[in-house]
C-alpha cells in the first residue's frame, strides 16, 4: 500500500523521482517500530531521514504537517509525506493492557457526564458528544444528524435505512459510524524555489496557505462538556489560526472535508481538509469552524448548505463513512 501510494504520487508529479526526496515523514499506528523505513527501502535507499509518526487519527495529517513545516523552516525543498495502515477487524481498542490508556482523561471526562458502558470507547466518546448536542438543540438536529450521514463504500442509503440500522451507541447507528479499513496515501511537498525549476507542473500544484495543529486544552477535560472532549475547542482554535495565517474568513471556504484537530487551507479555491468519522462529529465541527452559529448546524443542513448547490460542499469524497478509517 505504501509503495503504491508513493509511486502514484511520483507518477502524478511527472518530473519528480524518489531520489529528489530530502526527507520522508511516514505515519502509521498499528505497526512495529521503523515500519516507515521498511516500507520505503524497496523504493530507494538514499540515506534520507525517515521519521516515523504515530498520532492516532491525526497520524496522516501530522506527517503532512511536519513535511510542510520542514519546508517552511528551510530544511528541505522536496519532502515526502506518507501514511499507511493495516488494521485489525472490528472497533478500535488498545494494544497494551499493562499500562495506562493514553485516552484515560478523555474517558474520565466523558464518564463524568454520561455513565460509561461496555461499548467501544471511540463510539462512546463521539456518541456522548452527539447526545449532548441533541439535548441542547433538539428537535431540529434529530433529522439533520441522520440526513448528514455519509455513504459507506460507494453505497447510497436512505434516511430510513440509516435510522433503522443497528444501534451501536445512542444516538449513533451502524451507518453513522465509519468502518475500520486498510489504506495508504502519499503527498509530495515542495518549496516555491523547487517548483520554479519545473514550470511544466506548476498548473497542477496546490498551494498550502496554512496548516495548523492544536492539541488538548484544559477545557477539554474540566468543562464537563462531551463536545469539548472530542475536540470542539481545539478544532475552533485550529480553524481560527489557519484563517488568520491564510488571510481568509469562513465564508471564503468552498469545499470542506471533516474530521479532527487539523486545518489545512489550500489556495484558489480555498479548501479546508478534515475527515468525518462519526455523523455527530461532523455537525459539531460545523460550528467549530465558524460555518454557522451556535446550535445552527441542523439549519445549515436543512438549507442544503452542506452539499452541491449550497454554500459549502462538505465531504465530497464521502468522508470516512465511505473510505473507511485507516488511522
From TrEMBL:
- Domain called Thiolase C-terminal: residue spans: 272-326
Per UniProt, what is one Pfam family of this protein?
Thiolase_N
Provide this UniProt record's keywords sorted from A to Z.
Transferase
Thiolase N-terminal domain mapped to chain residues: 2-92
Q: Which InterPro entries match?
A: Thiolase-like, Thiolase_acyl_enz_int_AS, Thiolase_C_2, Thiolase_N
- One Gene Ontology molecular-function label: acyltransferase activity, transferring groups other than amino-acyl groups
- The protein in question is named Thiolase-like protein
Q: Which organism is it from?
A: Adineta steineri
Species classification? Eukaryota, Metazoa, Spiralia, Gnathifera, Rotifera
